[in-house]
Amino acid sequence: MKTRTTPVEIPAHLRPILQAAAKNLLHHLYGPQGPPWGTTLDDIEQTIVQLSKQLGCELLQQSLQRQAQQPLPPPLQTCPSCGGPVQPEDPEPRSLPTTLGIVDWQEPTSTCGSCRKAFFPSVGFVGH
């Protein structure tokens, strides 16, 4: 698996969307006035850290699910053992621990009709 060495910069066009999402979350969390007087910086920070982790986990989970719903790229349409075509099968539930939490999605699967091997495309492929 690749390890990213440089941080990903947030594209400028997403910054207003993130600001709007933060404003909306803040409104739902504390109401239109924001946190009441007496709420400590530590309390606010801890709440925001938990929201950030939950949001990140949700984004990761939805990203994996959307990726899994796309057609397999050509390199994953052939059996790595015999080179024959693979046939799509029903997706199977997948769960992985990440730095943000556990993510779950329906992973596509396929089977080689020639050598009868089953494949999970994301094994050794997620993150590419």
Index terms:
single chain, 128 residues, alpha+beta, three-stranded antiparallel sheet, 3 strands, elongated, disordered C terminus
Walkthrough of the structure:
This protein is an alpha+beta fold and 128 residues long. It has one domain. 34% of the residues lie in helices and 20% in strands. The protein contains two helices and three strands, in the order ααβββ. A three-stranded antiparallel beta sheet has the order 1-2-3, covered by helices on one side. The longest helix has 28 residues, at 41-68. It is elongated. 6% of the residues are buried.
Q: What is the N-to-C order of secondary-structure elements (H for helix, E for strand)?
A: HHEEE
Strand content range: 15-25%
**Global Rg:** 21 Å
Structural class category = alpha+beta
Number of strands: 3
* Major beta sheet summary: 3 strands, antiparallel
Task: State the domain count.
Answer: 1
What is the count of helical runs? 2
